[in-house]
Design goal:
2 domains, five-stranded mixed beta sheet
């Protein structure tokens, strides 16, 4: 996956959510939270490393508010059909949008994030609709969640970012510490030991040109 795919996902989501807001009479802002590995492409558009960009799914959560369960369910169904696994988008563009929204408790996934994740996240407005907001989880929070999951592909992802000098060790440890309310402290310490090992490995180039930081206002 590449940054062009992410840009296309933003366009598709903004267009769809603008239509759904009209159809279901939603007048307040709609927030789309990007929480998966491909969030890295928002911050670093020219990543070129298979361990980092090998995934072809864009993980999102749509946040409407607790009083909009029925409307969120309908929107989720539409998004899954139009842009989910096996959709035309998937067939034509070779990536899909994995909508992880839970209409019964839209904060269910967010509750498992590091405590202060929102202070580190970046939010942008839709290109044509300022009531559609796209929020990208900070890459350190993404990596903290991947380390907690501790799957092989997640560890490879974090390792590549460490070796590519993208992650700040202090911030990453801070994110891990913010999960102590629901993650056993012994597990967190074991994860930190793994992270320490990653930082002993040689640096690698994970970018395809010299400009690797994308600034967003």
């Amino acid at each position: 996956m590449n940054s062009d795919n992410l840009d296309l996902a933003l366009i598709k989501l903004e267009d769809a959510l603008t239509t759904y807001a009209i159809n279901y009479q939603i007048e307040h802002e709609i927030e789309v939270l990007f929480l998966g590995s491909q969030s890295i492409l928002f911050y670093h558009k020219n990543i070129n490393n298979n361990a980092i960009i090998n995934s072809y799914e864009v993980d999102i959560i749509v946040l409407l508010g607790k009083d909009y369960k029925d409307k969120l369910q309908k929107i989720s169904n539409h998004l899954d059909f139009a842009y989910g696994y096996g959709s035309n988008l998937h067939d034509e563009e070779l990536f899909y949008i994995d909508n992880m929204s839970d209409p019964e408790d839209e904060e269910s996934n967010v509750k498992k994030f590091p405590k202060n994740w929102r202070s580190r996240a970046k939010t942008i407005n839709g290109q044509f609709n300022s009531k559609i907001n796209f929020t990208f989880l900070d890459i350190h929070d993404v990596c903290a969640l991947k380390l907690i999951a501790y799957r092989e592909k997640d560890l490879e992802y974090v390792q590549a970012l460490v070796q590519g000098s993208v992650l700040d060790k202090q911030i990453l440890n801070k994110c891990l510490n913010e999960t102590k309310d629901f993650i056993d402290e012994n597990k967190i310490n074991n994860i930190k030991n793994k992270v320490n090992y990653f930082y002993t490995l040689p640096q690698i180039n994970i970018f395809n040109n010299k400009i690797n930081n994308i600034k967003h206002k």
